[in-house]
Amino acid sequence: MVFDVYGTNLILPQANKIAGPNVKTLMHITQGASSMFGFFAPSAKCGISDYETAVERICSDEELRKGRDRTQIVEAVVLAKNGTDKLNGTVIRVPGVKEIFDYEREGYNVPMPPGILIQIAEMIKLAANTDGTILSSSYALEGPVLEAWTEFKKPYPVGIQVAPFGWKKGIVIKDDEIRGFLDKNEKNSVLYISFGSHFFPITTPGYVTALLSTLEKLKFPFIFVLGGQMAKDHLPSDTISRINQSGAGLIHCGWADQRGILQHPSTGWFLTHAGWNSISESLAQGVPLICWPMSHSDQFMNAALLSTRDEPIAFELLQTRMGEARGPPRRGGGEIKGEIGEVEREMEDVLSKARGTEGAKLRKHAESIAIKLRDERDGRADWAIRELAAV
After folding, report:
1. What is the pLDDT at residue 229?
2. What's the pLDDT band for 110 if we cut at 50, 70, 90?
3. Which domains does the chain have, with CATH numbers?
């Protein structure tokens, strides 16, 4: 039996009763392995599989409890993910990712959905209750953490999940405006911007304005797709009209063929919220990324994975972080303050690097990863699928 990570732990007992004791249960993970590693590892190894131990300790001590009920304590412990009920600068060590502080993998440029932390608690229980995990990941991207995974559960890394036409080249973009903008620009010169279906920095609109003004200042051509629900009405119509009329960039209000844009030779970079699907589609085409994570989910760990690896394939914007995520980063550099001046300086620095020697190195690494991902898709990942079929 295969269970999705979201909420299905609640029906696991009934499913086991129906299927019988000899049927194995597998957890299907569509995020990256690095961000999900803590669901299986205990607090001693920077995980939260034993989160209930911390919850019971706090619940039994009135001084630690501070008048909270058990649900509130569960939420605090699951949010901290460090064996306590608060972010405190604990150093997080995930195989294959350079060390970060606990607050570096958190942030909320978008509101946290109600009930999500209790849902995460159920996901942790499901991880403990299943026999193995199906992972939409690849040894080319996350080899060290996939190797470490075997200590806790049997992994089945079936490769990044990109539809067959997402691996191809030369898909014709049907939208005339987007195709025309890309066709008129040079190879690898255009920045593609999209925050996906569910995310947009609605609590920091000034950061988006800073991004647009920096792109105009640097004369960096870009396509900004506003397809998600949160993106609607969060850019002034006069700004959209001015930019589109100038020809310096294109702001597209609606859905677009992301895979076609990433396949176009003019697309050189992808500025993204660092969701796993967007990462997968970009790397399948060898397009390096600029990460702007903004949600309590996998995005911050994904960004750290891509930007701090030995051969990085992404830049990460740090000054765009909010709340507990602000502070001195473990990876070095200035303190994350989130002030608009700091945001603008970082954006200009990153976009300038993207066009320089450092950006060329990242592009080479991304192109190399694309080849490895293709090879693994038809090799090691295919073997994992065959092994899974025999379970």
Report:
1. 67
2. low
3. 2-162+376-389 (no CATH), 165-373 (3.40.50.2000)
pLDDT at 323: 75
Label residue 307 left, alpha or beta by phi (over 0 means left) and psi (-120 to 50 means alpha). Answer: alpha
Query: What does the buried/exposed string (b/e) look like for 6-19 if buried means 16 or more CB atoms within 10 Å of the residue's CB?
Result: eebbeebeeeeeee
- Partners of residue 4 on adjacent β-strands: 28
Residue 187 CB partners (closer than 8 Å, separation 6+): 265, 266, 268
CA dist 242 and 187 (Å) reads 25
> Sorting pLDDT into bands at 50, 70 and 90, what band is 301?
very high
Task: Give the integer Cα–Cα distance in Å for 81 and 46.
Answer: 8
C-alpha 298/C-alpha 5 separation (Å) is 13
User: Structure pTM?
Assistant: 0.93
CA–CA distance, 286 with 281 (Å, rounded to integer):
9
What is the rounded CA–CA span in Å between residue 26 and residue 42? 20
The answer to whether 330 and 100 have CB atoms below 8 angstroms apart is yes
What's the pLDDT score for residue 201?
77
Q: What angle do CA 158, 159, 162 make, to 5 degrees?
A: 120
Sequence-separated (6 or more) residues with CB below 8 Å from residue 366: 282, 283, 286, 287, 288, 289, 313
User: d(Cα 36, Cα 47) in Å, to the nearest integer?
Assistant: 9
b/e sequence 238-266, b meaning 16+ C-beta within 10 Å: eebeebbeeeebbbbbeebbbbbbbbbeb
- Residues 6+ positions from 353 with CB-CB distance below 8 Å: 315, 359
Q: Which two tokens stand for residue 283?
A: 């790397």
At a CB cut-off of 8 Å and minimum separation 6, what does 21 contact?
Answer: none
C-alpha 127 chain-centroid distance = 20
Q: 199-219: string of b/e by CB count within 10 Å (b at 16+)?
A: bbbeebeebbbbbbebbeebe
Q: How many H helices and E strands in the chain?
A: 16, 12
Question: Distance between CA atoms of 270 and 262, rounded to whole angstroms?
Answer: 8
Residue type, 175: D
